[in-house]
Design a protein that fits this description.
With 257 residues, the protein is of the alpha+beta class. The chain has helices spanning 3-14, 95-111, 143-157, 202-205, 235-253, and strands at residues 30-34, 42-48, 51-62, 73-78, 120-122, 126-138, 159-164, 167-177, 185-192, 195-198, 210-216, 222-228. The protein has one domain: GHMP Kinase, N-terminal domain (Ribosomal Protein S5, domain 2, 2-Layer Sandwich). It is 26% helix and 35% strand. Strands 1, 2, 3, 4, 5 and 6 form a six-stranded mixed beta sheet that branches. Strands 10-9-11-12 form a four-stranded antiparallel beta sheet, with helices on both faces.
Amino acid sequence: MNKGKRDHVIHYLNNNIRYDGRKKEEYREISVETGVIRTAEGSARVKFGETEVIAGVKFEVGKPYPDSPDAGTMMVNAELIPMSSPDFESGPPGIVAIELARVVDRGIRESGAIDFKKLCIKHGELVWTIIVDIVPVNAFGNLFDVASLAVMSAIKNAKFPELDGEKIDYKKLTKNSIPMEEEPISVTVLKIGDHLIVDPIPDEEKVLDARLTVATLKDETIVAMQKGGELSLSTEDIKSMIEISIKKAKEIRKFLK
């Protein structure tokens, strides 16, 4: 960690301002666009300021898992390409990509957002699998929140392709959407010194003490949490971070198409 940069960031925060002029709990400008990939059954492009993430949804059919013969499944993958950030390298998914995919997946799965039983085509023999790919176009901070909103938007945008037996016709989409039960929203809060902030840029992420990503439902139910960073969080820290997450989730939810 660059101590000089950390001191500089904290100096700004002590004066209730950040590098880009925002307040501690202020998000950058948010935009959501759906149906951006013609070759995907569902897609979305989400921007938080300079950070831009594209999520795509594809469908496959296959045998269900032995322990859930009457339910389909979902796979979430993240590809962090070098063109989106100088911190990313080519090759197999690293720890950052794996964590990003798992955090997004957990928020959706643990919330019961998708009724996987309705993805069953033939009990014990054939089910739908939802495959979600996350690709940052420009990774300029806060990938957890941006990717989560992009994936939820892409899932809501998706339509099932036509199915003839076990053969999928990807050129023909039906009017059937993914069966949704809930709509989780993830908000990540960073602790830097004595300060708590949301929607960090890279200079802030590189000097964090800890972070907490909280996924909540519309009724404020907490469905998943992920802690990151080297330092521990006190009970009061966690309580404050959860309160901020719930409050900011209400703002982000307005952008879920």
